[in-house]
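Lecture 7, part 2: worked example. A protein chain together with iron/sulfur cluster.
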Amino acid sequence: MDPYIERSPDGAVAIGTLDSLLNLARKNSEWYLLFATACCGIELMQTGGPRTDADRFGFVFRPTPRQADTIILAGTITYKMASRVRLLYEQMAEPRYVISMGSCANTGGPFYDSYPVVKGGDLILPVDVYVAGCPPRPEALIEALMLVQDKMAREPWLRKARGRWPDPKDPWPQPSAVLGSCAAAAKGPTPKG
Ligand code: SF4
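Predicted complex, written out as structure tokens:
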């Protein structure tokens, strides 16, 4: 909800919900994990550079999951890497968000037929925003980060705290089955005979 602003000769008084105030702070300091699994990572690095100037939106990269709000799946995810990606996600504090960047992270991309490639990051993490492209340009990634900002701005924290708001990620199945098959695939085929 937008705050109500009453102007007075000495300044102004803003009245809003506590949720709005919390979300205003959160959405303007969205820190994303500096992590990539393949060539989309080059565009991810470029997004943090001076030409794109992501800092003006409050997007700052962090090299540690413990201080990051958002993880970006940037690149092809192999079965060997899937459990590491999941581990990084689990080291992030709630609330946390996931962006799937590029064709490989969305569906397996040009390597869809390749046996070691996971056919979509949403098999291992609950993705909030998908970015199309091979690779997506930094501008597309900026838009995805802004969509996450929009989501942050709408989160009803106090209603959630009172149990009056269902978490849309709750029904998302735990990926143990997928990660189990990832581990099996990482070991390689079983020898015949
Ligand atoms: S989507 Fe294209 S650029 Fe991105 S990791 Fe896959 S092959 Fe590389």
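The two ends are 66 Å apart (CA to CA). The chain has one domain: 18-187. Keep this in mind for problem set question 3.
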